[in-house]
TrEMBL record:
InterPro entries: PIH1/Kintoun_subfamily (IPR050734), PIH1_N (IPR012981). Involved in the assembly of C/D box small nucleolar ribonucleoprotein (snoRNP) particles. Recruits the SWI/SNF complex to the core promoter of rRNA genes and enhances pre-rRNA transcription. Mediates interaction of TELO2 with the R2TP complex which is necessary for the stability of MTOR and SMG1. Positively regulates the assembly and activity of the mTORC1 complex. Coiled coil: none annotated. Signal peptide: none annotated. This is PIH1D1 isoform 2.
Amino acid sequence: LQQAQTTRPESTQIQPQPGFCIKTNSSEGKVFINICHSSSIPPPADVTEEELLQMLEEDQAGFRIPMSLGEPHAELDAKQRFLAGARDHHRQGGP
């Protein structure tokens, strides 16, 4: 058990390209989600809408959208007020 806790999965660092930001609110305050992109993250499988619907109906885990999520972190907004959190989300392709 101790070895499983200290073993880190293989990873690759990437430098994402800016995309866009989603602003929303939670009960704790404002939340910003930064959407970035990188050609280093492979695209999802190219399937038709019918194939995707069939996979989702069959509850198959075979279809996934590759992504990388950064740790939530506190930031200040333009008025220097604390934000509930910010998260960086990287996906393949452009915005």
